[in-house]
Design brief:
By secondary structure, the protein is an alpha+beta fold. It is built from six helices and ten strands, in the order H-H-H-E-H-H-E-E-E-E-H-E-E-E-E-E. The strands form three sheets. Strands 9-8-7-6-10 form a five-stranded antiparallel β-sheet, with no helix packed on it. Helix 1 packs antiparallel against helix 2. The protein is rod-shaped and about 125 Å long.
């Protein structure tokens, strides 16, 4: 059978037992040791119970921190400025509070991050040491997706291969040609070759412009 005893009552018992122990009562001395042990264990369990939610929260946040950091920043920035949230700075304290961790732990997790569009911003007064920088807030800038860069690289590789083939194609004065995507500013313009110079041509475009263009920028049209 468990009897719930208040801490105040236990402390009163402790005081009584201490007074008896001081008089040489050996039984009181033994009981005093048991009471002190109980009080220490009770305080420890309360401390652990209070600390565990914070520790659990910090453990969860540590996993995939970079993604959670962006999501939290975006949410807070969106609340303050709406859809135009890119490049809007949010203070470390606000981010840490929203993520359920201490600002000290937040700084530790931010320090090793290597995110291209993440910028740490130094404050006017109090700053935190983040690696080799001093900062009080951070922001994210828009960036092109890596997949797009990859696709662009693949496209450029294909274009280069095609260009090597096209350079072998010879043009003559009078040929009707169309400018391809290798020269974006003239892309899809149609014109007539009026001068051939080695592996390039001077083309008189139908819109009235003239341009010197390498052969690989031109597609010959059927006469």
């Amino acid at each position: 059978m468990t009897i719930r005893t208040s801490t105040d009552l236990l402390r009163q018992i402790q005081d009584y037992l201490r007074s008896q122990a001081d008089k040489g009562d050996r039984q009181a001395q033994q009981l005093l040791i048991q009471v002190l042990t109980f009080l220490l264990d009770d305080n420890s369990s309360h401390t652990q119970a209070e600390a565990s939610p914070r520790a659990e929260s910090e453990t969860k946040v540590s996993l995939d921190f970079d993604r959670k950091l962006f999501d939290t920043w975006q949410e807070l920035a969106n609340e303050q400025v709406g859809d135009n949230f890119w490049s809007y700075p949010i203070a470390f304290e606000d981010l840490a509070e929203a993520m359920g961790i201490t600002v000290e732990r937040f700084v530790q997790l931010v320090a090793p991050l290597q995110i291209g569009n993440l910028q740490l911003i130094q404050g006017r007064s109090h700053n935190y040491t983040v690696g080799e920088q001093m900062a009080a807030s951070l922001t994210f800038h828009p960036k092109q997706p890596k997949e797009a860069k990859s696709d662009r690289g693949a496209a450029e590789a294909k274009t280069t291969a095609k260009s090597q083939t096209k350079e072998k194609v010879s043009f003559r004065v009078g040929d009707r040609v169309q400018v391809n995507a290798n020269r974006p500013q003239y892309a899809n313009q149609v014109g007539t070759v009026d001068q051939v110079i080695s592996v390039s041509c001077r083309v008189k475009l139908d819109n009235g412009w003239s341009a010197f263009l390498p052969n690989h920028c031109l597609d010959k049209l059927p006469n």
